[in-house]
Amino acid sequence: MGKQRKVTIILYPKCSTCRAAVKSLQSKGNEVASRDIVTDTPTAKELKELVQLSGLELKKFFNTSGEVYKELGLKDKLASMTDDEKYELLAAHGMLIKRPIVTDGSKVTVGYKEELYEQEWKRGRG
């Protein structure tokens, strides 16, 4: 077998889903580096790169079930915001970002679903 793939997971340490995602990644033979989404929030520039690598729409990076999303009333505001404004907003509020985000530098997944991890992060693929 080849050497372990290194992945970075951007997570909220108290989030049980994020902890499950780390275990899943490790069980698939990945070397996992964790990054706290609150104390080391991705910059707007980093977020743009993550969105591009994910192939997903920017709106998929918003934690729509989180408190910050509701407090800021974003359900009604996002449609009228520019992408740059959205990136700045995400960079300013780590808890507004959907988590966990996993990247190996060439691809990105957002959120945790075991089927997705099995497909994208199992060693020997990608």
UniProtKB/TrEMBL annotation:
PROSITE patterns: ARSC (PS51353). It holds the Pfam family ArsC. Coiled coil: none annotated. NCBIfam families: arsC_related. Belongs to the ArsC family. This is Arsenate reductase family protein. The lineage of its organism: Bacteria, Bacillati, Bacillota, Bacilli, Bacillales.
